[in-house]
Amino acid sequence: MIQVAAAATNGVSIPSRKVCRADAMNMFKKRMCDLREKLKSGVVTSTVSLAVDAWQASNTDGYLAVTGHWI
User: Fold this and answer.
1) Rg (CA), the chain
2) Per its UniProt entry, which superkingdom is the organism in (predicted)?
């Protein structure tokens, strides 16, 4: 698949899964720090609503998602 994508994009290199994971984790950490600062600084003055969802995949992997919304 990588060879097909590289041929279709005129040789543009596709990052490995390790690079993608590292980039995603770095972005997550930065956004989390930014969000913490906003919540601590009082920029967010309205109520924050949290939603939680948990489920289990057929291979017994468990997942938990927490989302927060404010207006």
Assistant:
1) 19
2) Eukaryota
